[in-house]
Amino acid sequence: MPPKAGFSRAKTVGYDDDDIYDDYSEEEYVGEGEGEAMSEEDKEQMAAGVIKVREALGSEYSKVKEVDIQDALWNYYYDVGKSVTFLKNKYAPKAPAPAKPKAVSRFDQAAGAADAKTPTSTGKHMLICGTESTARAMSNLAIDGEGESIASLCETLRDGLAAMSRETPFTERTARSQASSCASDYTSARTKDFFWDVPWGNVPCSRLATITAQPATHKGGLLGGSSKLAALAAKRKQKQQEEAAAKADAAANGLAADKAVALLDRLNIRDKPASAPVRDDTKPRYPKKRSETPPPPEPAPVEEEPIPEPQGIRIEFPNLRAKQPSMFGAILCGSPQDEPRNQHVESALNSFPLPYANAKAFTDADPFSKPSPDDLVRQAQARSAGAPKSKTKTKGSTDGEKLAESVEKLVVETKVKSKNLNVVDEYRNCGLKKVANFVVIGHVDHGKSTLMGRLLYDLKVVDERSVDKLRQEAETIGKSSFALAWLMDQTPEERSRGVTVDIATVPFETEQTSFTILDAPGHRDFIPNMIAGVSQADFAVLVVDAQENSFQSGLKGQTKEHALIVRSMGIQRLIVAVNKMDTVSWSKERFDKVRQATTAFFETASFSLKNITFIPCAGLTGDNVTKRVADENAEWYSGPTFLEALEASEPKPRALERPLRLTINDVFRGSGQNPLSISGQIEAGTLQIGDVVLALPSRETATIKAIELPDGSPADWAVAGQIPTLHLVDIDVVHLRLGDLLCAPTAPVRLVKSFTCKMLAFEHVMPQFVDVFRGKQQATGLITALASILDKNTGEVTRRKPRIVRPGEVARVRIELEGSAGLPLEVGGRIVLRDGGRTVGAGLLESYT
Ligand SMILES: Nc1nc2c(ncn2[C@@H]2O[C@H](COP(=O)(O)OP(=O)(O)OP(=O)(O)O)[C@@H](O)[C@H]2O)c(=O)[nH]1
């Protein structure tokens, strides 16, 4: 059976896969916690992993260093199998590679040969040769592949020269002469020897060309050839140049003469008696005030001399202008001023009767007196978009009007029509199965995906062929045990790493219930994704590895953290799947221990024990998943199977009558028909085709064009609790992001920036920065005040203004969100507070400003 629509889409069509990583690279993301020391849990996992890897590697790989093993484990998230494969590949004994002759460049050969040929003087010789000029000459030889070696040789030469000049005093002249002789030796003898076979070498002197300066000849003619005109032009230019030179000379002489006169003048002035200053008429004078000094009379207009007509041959152009415009020209360009156009056209048409002569366009006095077909189409579009329609319609409509009408019809037809259903009544009368969504949580590698894969396989949601194919693929990378998990983990990254990264949403049905699995990642780096899954769930399945070591590390890690998040987000029903019971031989003792340890913890986390069911099972073998366990060691267990426990779970009460609230869990581009689709759980209210919804925080509206249920079937409506796919129109994809809220435009949710909440602390909490999560939506916030500590059961204030809130305490705190538009929050809404990759608390919104 092929996978269903919703199934195949899971995780493959994310609108913005980078979302979880924001703007930083994967390395940065993974390395977020690496700056800190390893946690206790990490250390334990690392130690256990190292032992396992060593065992798997065997004595053959005893040389593998511990640090390499640790690196591999860290890189592969403690995945022993992958680490072993990696290390085996890395340390596999390699066959000695055949000795490859070292590629030596021609210049290196030349240099080597030079060294060999002048053993006695190599050092000094080379050093003396290293004058700057030689080095430059050598650098100039640097061509293509030889460039590097030549360049390095030049460097050596320069260095050598510097050293030489320091160590051996010699006159510059000696150095120069030696240098030049050596340089010529080097460049001529050695280079010549080694470049003898290049095409540009060994050219006889007689055939060497001499490069001379090109005479300044003027290229004339179109093709650069000479012509009489060109010769004339050249001559004229030469004359001009000569004239210019003569002028320059004269100017220079004049300047010299001027200077002499000036000097004389100065000498003269000294001798003369002081006289009244002479007004210099050459300088411009400006009146101080307009009124005092009348403006100088306007200079008489200078009569411009008429420019003489250039003498030469005059070409007389015949007057080609027609006395009358042609018929075609008259039709196109004739203007009413020249002649009554109609008459002219009429007469032309009458004299040349043409097949189209009676067409209306020709006889129209003014073709622009009516709107063009384009105008009509535009008007029609505007009308269909809401502009008032013209009530009167002319009887005999033109082609353009007809076209406009059809466009108008088309546009109206593509508009989404609402059936205006009473969705609540429809839902109550349709006899739909119970709808329940559950999130699968637990520590990394405790077997969540495998258990879900097994469930789907046993319920025949996926066919045997698909599983066999996955098995083969998994085997090829040495991960056959992950075949079932791959039914949930569908991205290449998840499969290669062996860890779930994002929520997988998979629907399946039993006789009584339509379930949706929300498989959450167990790794602590992906807790934000896990929170998004929890926000859509009615109840949770906590998967716990029955093996002692794994169980203990889970209890210190995400088994506890996930359970706390689930509880603080309002989930009360919990199924604890004590998994991998096959690895502990279905030991009742082990099962009881796990049950005891977790129960103690659940009590402290305010779970009601009557809402918790413990199921021993083995996802890999399928024991006690959908069918009872056959192992005789498991005879002690007579309780329900995992599937029965699922069936016995009641979904949360649905708020059908409240305004629509839907958190977007996925945004994707579908077919050409449905270019923009989203999916997510309806938290409250109902929706139907044709409804307009408001997206927050973008505040953009969209229209629901079509609805698809999780099993891929189309629907006219959907209600709270369902996780439908909505095909939207009238909105751009940029306005919709994962975690955004769709709500009824008539009852929008407020974007809140400052609020008070009741917070259950998981860690010590003080006034501090925190990341505030509303599902997948996130904003940075600051806990500005710790108002009081509350009694867990009664909610009464037990202490005011505490300086710190301890883990397990409930406190009333004030939070201000920073630098964002705010989060769409309502009173009673749930949030999770994280700091530095750790969940520090969870809150229930009490009030906001
Ligand atoms: N022996 C045994 N191995 C199991 C069982 N269930 C899962 N495994 C193995 O445990 C490993 C991890 O299984 P997953 O299903 O990927 O674990 P997970 O909890 O989904 O991991 P994340 O999603 O990355 O948190 C795989 O090698 C499984 O084959 C089981 O019942 N018995």
TrEMBL record:
Gene Ontology cellular-component terms listed: cytosol; Dom34-Hbs1 complex
Entry-linked Pfam families: GTP-eEF1A_C, GTP_EFTU, HBS1_N
Basic and acidic residues bias (residue ranges): 272-292
Transmembrane segments: none
Domain of life: Eukaryota
Record bears the keyword Zinc-finger: no
Catalytic activity line of the entry: GTP + H2O = GDP + phosphate + H(+)
UniProt KW keywords: Cytoplasm, GTP-binding, Hydrolase, Nucleotide-binding, Protein biosynthesis, Translation regulation
Chief location of this protein within or outside the cell: cytoplasm
Residue span(s) of domain Tr-type G: 433-654
GO biological process, one term: regulation of translation
Subunit structure: Component of the Dom34-Hbs1 complex, also named Pelota-HBS1L complex, composed of dom34 and hbs1.
The protein, known as: Elongation factor 1 alpha-like protein
Record lineage: Eukaryota, Fungi, Dikarya, Ascomycota, Pezizomycotina
